């Protein structure tokens, strides 16, 4: 998740991506990180069959520097389009 200016990134994990993004976009988590920094754009996601794999991947990505996270996003979404609008909301 990121904001409109793409100045802040949030990495998280969920078993219900569509629902969780909707919650972030609608500021369901008052005073949470995504609410505080107005992070409403989903610019990257990965699917994992096992939750433990998703959690391990989340921890790995969170350790990365910003430049490496940007490169990961750019590899699949070079224009940083909001994937909610392009696909996720239609699931």
From TrEMBL:
Q: Which Pfam families match?
A: GIY-YIG
Q: Which intervals hold domain GIY-YIG? A: 1-71
Name of the protein this chain belongs to? GIY-YIG nuclease superfamily protein
Native organism: mine drainage metagenome
